Amino acid sequence: MIKHLLSAADLDAATATLVLDTAAEMASLAGREVKKLPALRGRTVVNLFYEDSTRTRISFEAAAKRLSADVINFSAKGSSVSKGESLKDTALTLQAMGADAVVVRHPASGAPHRLANWVEGSVVNAGDGTHEHPTQALLDAYTMRSRLGRLAGLNVAIVGDVLHSRVARSNVQLLHTLGAKVTLVAPPTLLPVGVDAWPAGTSYDLDAVVPDSDVVMMLRVQRERMNQAYFPSEREYARRYGFDVPRMRRLPGHAIVMHPGPMNRGMEIAPEVADSPRSTIVEQVANGVSVRMAVLYLLLGGKA
Ligand code: NCD
Predict the structure, then answer these.
(1) Model confidence pLDDT, tens digit, residues 4-28
(2) Which CATH number fits domain 134-281: 3.40.50.1370, 3.30.200.20, 3.40.50.880, 3.30.1330.30?
(3) 43 is catalytic
(4) 221: which residues sit within 8 A by CB, 6+ positions away?
(5) 3-state secondary structure of 250
(6) Which residue ranges does the record assign to the Aspartate/ornithine carbamoyltransferase Asp/Orn-binding domain (predicted)?
(7) Cβ contacts of residue 167 below 8 Å, gap of 6+?
(8) Which atom of ligand 1 approaches the CA of 288 most closely?
(9) Which among 288, 274, 258 has a CA at the least distance from the CA of 58?
């Protein structure tokens, strides 16, 4: 097993499949009366969050607690970070406390990689800037596999603000590793430079892609990372790239609609779609706990 999970590229097909299979076992155990497993008793997991998060932070916390680990939650607000303490000094403090795993979210792309050089424990990237979010890609793959029965050969459309999305980057990488075919759908202004080198196709035309998609993954328009106008207006964006009911009706019967959350309802996704039986949005959150249990277990379990 690998020591850190910094990028979806750290996972080859066998390792990624092992994580998904382990997550499935975790999910079946969670269905039993005793939700807690003793697997990580005596180990310490630190959640180090320098950026706002709802789902990911509580998901890692729940995962670590269900494995009986001790959990320390650190958020940059209210810590010495606001006094200008560097990531390195914070890392050394965590090291001194004996963290076995550090789960880190940071606005700077590459911060988890740097942290991995400074601490002895395992580092899990919980989202770094616009770069990567590997456990989100794993929980998305898990959700696709459990709804559709397989990943190899699936047509997956990832739609919207690809430019700012670490979710898209990690998903493209992992889905490619697992044999799915990804098409990125976005206005030209929201596709990154160099996207041609990614293992994915691209399209500007959502309506052309919908009828052949097994999975449509909508991305949040990330206003907080936009310092200029990337599209004419919200209405225009929603009309061309929003997933609405008429588009949902043109999907194949078995297809699912995903979103990592948080959603801009009415912008990239219509409320009727988000709340429809095709939507896996709530399932993704539930699956996230099982997948993060599997990741922590596999990274730490062998080192007792
Ligand atoms: C995503 C993130 O933070 O990258 N959300 C998440 O982890 N569930 C996507 C987003 O913020 O739009």
Answers:
(1) 999 999 999 999 999 999 999 999 9
(2) 3.40.50.1370
(3) no
(4) 160, 161, 237, 264, 267, 268
(5) coil
(6) 153-299
(7) 133, 136, 137, 140, 219, 260
(8) 8
(9) 288
Assigned superfamily of 8-132+285-299: Aspartate/ornithine carbamoyltransferase (3.40.50.1370)
Residue closest to 183 by CA, chosen among 197, 201, 208, 167: 201
Ligand 1 binding pocket mutation candidate from 167, 225, 265 (most atoms within 8 A of CB)? 167
In a mutational test of the pocket of ligand 1, which residue from 59, 136, 292 has the highest number of ligand atoms less than 8 Å from its CB? 136
Enumerate the domain spans of the chain.
8-132+285-299, 134-281
Residue 136 among known ligand-binding residues = yes
Percent of the chain with pLDDT over 70: 97
| Alpha-carbon distances of 53 from 98, 119, 206, 277, 302, rounded to whole Å | 25, 23, 29, 26, 29
Site of tokens 């910094």: 6
CB of 167 within 6 A of ligand 1: the answer is yes
Per CATH, 8-132+285-299 and 134-281 having the same topology is answered yes
Using alpha carbons only, what angle is made at residue 221 by residues 218 and 227, rounded to the nearest 5 degrees?
155
Question: What mean pLDDT comes out for the span 239-251?
Answer: 98
Mean pLDDT of 237-266: 97
Q: Is 55 noted as a catalytic residue in this protein?
A: yes
Rounded Cα distance between 169 and 163, Å, is 9
Helical axes 281-300 vs 55-66, angle rounded to 10°: 50
* Cα 294 to Cα 64: distance, rounded to the nearest angstrom: 10
E strands, 117-174, in order: 122-128, 155-159
State yes or no: pLDDT of 304 exceeds 70.
no
Q: Order of strands, edge to edge, in the sheet holding 181-185?
A: 201-203, 181-185, 155-159, 215-218, 256-258
